[in-house]
Amino acid sequence: MLRKSIQRTAWVSDSAETYYVYLEVKGVPGVTYGGNTIQANKRTKVDLIKSLIYDNTKATVTLDSSALKQLIHLSSGTSTPLRRISFSVTVNSNQIIKLKNGQIVKYNKILTNDGNGYDVRTGVFTCPVAGTYMFVVDSMSQPGTWLYLKVNKNTVGKMYVSVDHKDNPLIQVSKTVIVKLKAGDHVKVENDGHSGKMYYDMYSGFTGVLLY
């Protein structure tokens, strides 16, 4: 059982009133607050703890290790902590990347790869945990280049550098999507034209992050 008492002073109409707050977290059906017993569920206990700690700067709370574990458990509930999944990759080369029809773009320079979902050998991100993800693809490419963002075999985003820009040798394009994935889904950037060209270095990249 965790039972803690806190004394604080509340200033009302220029007069001081001192009262006590008792929190009984485990094994007792209610919470005594200022002498009045109220039926408390888990949410009520957490709210009281937070208000006492954060809203009252004059209160001092002392918790032993067992009490601290109880507080952490109440605050976090029973949900599983969100895993940190993210990656950001770019092209490490010193020349224009020439892409064939249906070729997966292999971004071979890793800036970050939390969760190890991105495979630098294949250019494919394999979803390690189900959730909602955001992906960003950007490319500096020559006119006539088609790039598709795919989840498994399904296209979820497209980029195209129009041939109307033939007088401009390189055009920067970008695409952002938010999609729901299942564990094991594959996400990749694929060239969909007969030929495609992508500028090297950090002008072209692929990024993904688990949102929730």
TrEMBL record:
Keyword set, alphabetical order: Secreted
GO cellular component terms, A-Z: collagen trimer
Major localisation: secreted
Name of the protein described by the UniProt record: C1q domain-containing protein
Pfam families: C1q
Domain C1q: start-end pairs: 80-212
Superkingdom as given in the UniProt entry: Eukaryota
SMART domains: C1Q
Protein's cellular compartments: Secreted
Organism of provenance: Magallana gigas (Pacific oyster)
